[in-house]
Design a protein that fits this description.
This protein is of the alpha+beta class. The chain has two domains: about 110 residues, Alpha-Beta Plaits, CATH 3.30.70.580; about 150 residues, 2-Layer Sandwich (Alpha-Beta Plaits). It contains seven helices and ten strands. Strands 1, 2, 3, 4, 5, 6, 7, 8, 9 and 10 form a ten-stranded mixed sheet that branches. β2 and β3 form a beta hairpin.
Amino acid sequence: MGRVRATTLRWRALSSFDVTNATQRWRIDLAYDGRGLHGFAEQPGHQTVIGLLRETLTRTLRLLAPPQIIGAGRTDAGVHAFAQVIHVDLPPRLFPDDRGEPTERLIRSLNMQLAGRVRILKVQPVTKEFHARYSAQWRAYRYLVVESEGPALDVTAHLAWVTHGPIDVDLLSRAAELIVGTHDFRSFCRRSPGTELSDPLKRNVSEARWRHVPDELGIHPSGAPVLRLDIRANAFCHQMVRSLTALMIGIGQGKLPISLLSERFESGDRDGLPTPAPAGGLALIGVGYDEFAGGPSGFVG
């Protein structure tokens, strides 16, 4: 009995890693389909991006404890990402044997288990100074709007907001120009617990533009016009893009005055603003890093 126990303990020591002794920081670029996930951050009792990653990494690398994962930013339930970035501290040697290049092997194994809910795009070692959130210089999102009468097909609603027209693109563009720059966005952000309503939420938006795009994927069966918002900032607060999108679409539909944007930057008042646009139309498409940190993610320069 003692020999069996000793053999079992020796096998565990050879085949399992204690994440608390990790010395290598890894950057992982990933994408995910927001449908069926309760957002990015871990929530007990709900399936989230971080929850799936911690569980899958622990199983794949035989870790003794789930690793801590830090992301470039959080996304709400239903929001997609094509260029999310996380960092995680793992053993410098990912596998105890040499059956294939370790990072490629990890990517293949994780993607097989995640089965399309989350897709690992790249795994690379980085220095301890790299931080997925604090090293990021900017984040970029896109939002899709289909100009059509509802109700939308489920598949369309998971990719875009279907809302009636006509929508004046010139008015949308003028509204987007007002967003660029440093402003107090507390009127357009859901407050975090423990913060005061009077606390400013200043963010610097470096790009915000609307344009018509061809529906090359055929997301709407009638070929209705598709509008795309591209927005980039040093950081975003909770529901900021969706709240701004809802207000700008209201302006483009002629329901709301364009002056409302500037007024709310000054007052910080959230009352009476439209409900945030649906989550399905929003996707994280890029995160900006210096070259020392591996450069930007996604397809945004």
